[in-house]
Please model this.
Amino acid sequence: MKVIILGSATSTGVPIIGCGCPVCTSANPRNKRTRCSLFVEAGGKNILIDTSTDLRCQALRHGITRLDAVLYTHSHADHTHGIDELRVYNFVNKTSIRCYGNAQTIDNIKNNFKYIFDGVESAGGKPKLTLTVVSGEFDFEGVGITPVDVYHADWTILGYRIGGMAYLTDCSGIPDWSWDKLRGLDVLIISALRYQPHPAHLNVEQAVEVANELKPRLTVLTHMGHELDYDTLSKELPDSIVPAYDGMELELPNP
Model:
């Protein structure tokens, strides 16, 4: 199984437009972050988690020419507003794309992107998507996928576990019933917005606490804002915890 962190930024991206802070003006390419998204190649299937605002440039950068499924964590703009890019995959792959999420996310996608689902033909084409509500573990063409409830402020959204990897973005807390789904991980990818507390996201200290509780072999911090400098954070973290960067690749056993 190959995992690529396509984007590791919070909703603004890094650098932020008009910001002159040290991270936004840094020459370090690992401080250049596009909006959060993850690509998983497992069992011969290409699975995308979230259609970020930067999906087009991410897909071109990594040569992603086929998508078999999209797993949605939630319906915030930075995680969904690249949805129209999926129509190109319909043209190239000549098939509808199956998309999964919890009930609230699927309802919001239908409402926020009504033009996709109104049944009206468009000369320029529009995405052909099959939406499915998931609430428990399911099999996608031989790849076992476990949705994991996490809190995002007052929302309950989804993380996902595939084999020995779990992806928890925009997480502010983990419900009691989700912890056991996250035991025995090889890799935990989890959001860590900044150093200061935030009502809707874990900060660095809280993400490290989750890692210490779950004890995966490796923890990768993602969904990072411009308060976090890659090199500084790398030096501060324990050996088993690293910051993400756009294009980071991980290889794990097939699920």
